Amino acid sequence: MSVLNNIFPQPEGIPAEWRLNGFIEQREYLVNGELRTWQGQMNEVISPVSLNNSGLVEKNIIGSTPLLTEAESLEALDAAVNAYQNGTGEWPTMSVAKRIGHIELFLKEMKNQRAEIVKLLMWEIGKNLPDSEKEFDRTCIYIEDTIKGLKHIDHGNSTFENEEGIIAQIRRVPLGVALCMGPYNYPLNETFSTLIPALIMGNTVVFKPAKFGVLLLKPLLNVFKVCFPKGVINVIYGKGRETVGAIMETGKIDVFAFIGTNKGASEIKKQHPKPHRLRGVLGLDAKNPAIILPDADMDVTLAECVAGSLSYNGQRCTALKIIFVHEDVAEDFTKKYVEAVSKLKCGMPWEKDVKITPLPEPGKSAYLTGLVDDAKKYGAVVINENGGEVNDTFFYPAVLYPVNAQMRVYSEEQFGPVVPIVPYKELDEVINYVVQSNFGQQISIFSNDPAKVGHLIDEFANQVGRININAQCQRGPDVYPFNGRKDSAEGTLSVSDALRAFSIRLLISTKDNAANKAIVGSIVREHQSNYLRMDYIF
Ligand code: G3H
Predict the structure, then answer these.
(1) Residues 292 and 270 in one domain
(2) Global pTM value
């Protein structure tokens, strides 16, 4: 009898608090300040939470969303282009203080939708309740910090420089029309980490939600509509080829914000006819390694490696996706790691203390089974009880040991609950892995030896964007820079870096003489410009 046999709930067994109120048919999309109703083909939304109907596991279709075509996508683009009006529109020329006011209103209204969005995060992507709540709350904090960050930049720019006889004020202004696309694992947080900075800096936006985690934006559609002038934010749904492809080919997109695979990003970027006019803000694939040295504190290492590799089933771009452990401590580590994994509770996202939940991507269990089988072919063993067992969308974590370079899982990003553990003898083997990798997001070093840690920091400083000492890899705190090298990212995101990413500097200058100083002084005193000014936004 498999540990996963009765993992899915019977419909009547779902606690009333977490039941959905019927099928969610979402036909609306937002274009030019209007919620339009789509009458064409729809896309089924299949929950990773399958249902147990008298012992039979059944696919659970919880709703549907529009499959828009090229025509609607281009209408959305036109709306954004018209709202931007080559930089002369109401939104890009609006004062910073007023734009902040719109975002504050949006945040206030969004907070009212917390319960609904948290519930949909669980149903659509299988994220457990505490992590779903955290995703929502973290997003609100991100928006608050973005407002603070913009005020800070604005205060710093509300002054004049005087160099070599040239008086200057330097401000940040929008880039144009942004296309924002987020990932399914953080459909709210990561999407908003580009969407909000894009808007607040004065860009207009076409936003296409991730492939899963789409219905959860339904409660926000009307909020977008009422909080922003028409055309400033447009929300479309559908297949990438018909929607995003058509938009990119027009050459009217100025900023492309995308969190997803490097393959997907490259394909979309290539469709722009004038790539030199397109700024990319990209968060992409990663294969972050943990490196465990023989002297590492085993308790700290275990706790960080278990959370790092398996929180949200390993479906985080920052997850630890391969663990290198020194051969002297490999036996001890693997034994304790497997024990810790056996204590992770499997279940439905709303169940108390649940850690491992079903996976939203169709075919994901089969893909992970393929990775495990391939590793077994080259000598790895699934060392944990029940490891790799499957029931429909549920995949019990598989811990693979000893993993070597012949196996796909050594270099392929699994993005799921498969944990490859590689024993090593010499640190050069691990250093070489990182140097040769196509990815360069983060790394975690576990050791208490300052000399060894110092040496490894120097080895990895030009390889990755963040080196974590005795801690798992992670994006947060969101005020810190989040980036990557090679195929892992383009640009840097943090609260303040994102504001820079979606803007360009404008220099307003004049020669230092009495007449010019009088003109500039008058403009500032009489508030004759939205840009050349010295006011303080409280
Ligand atoms: O999926 C990638 C996310 O940016 C990871 O963020 O480290 O806070 O889970 P996190």
Answers:
(1) no
(2) 0.97
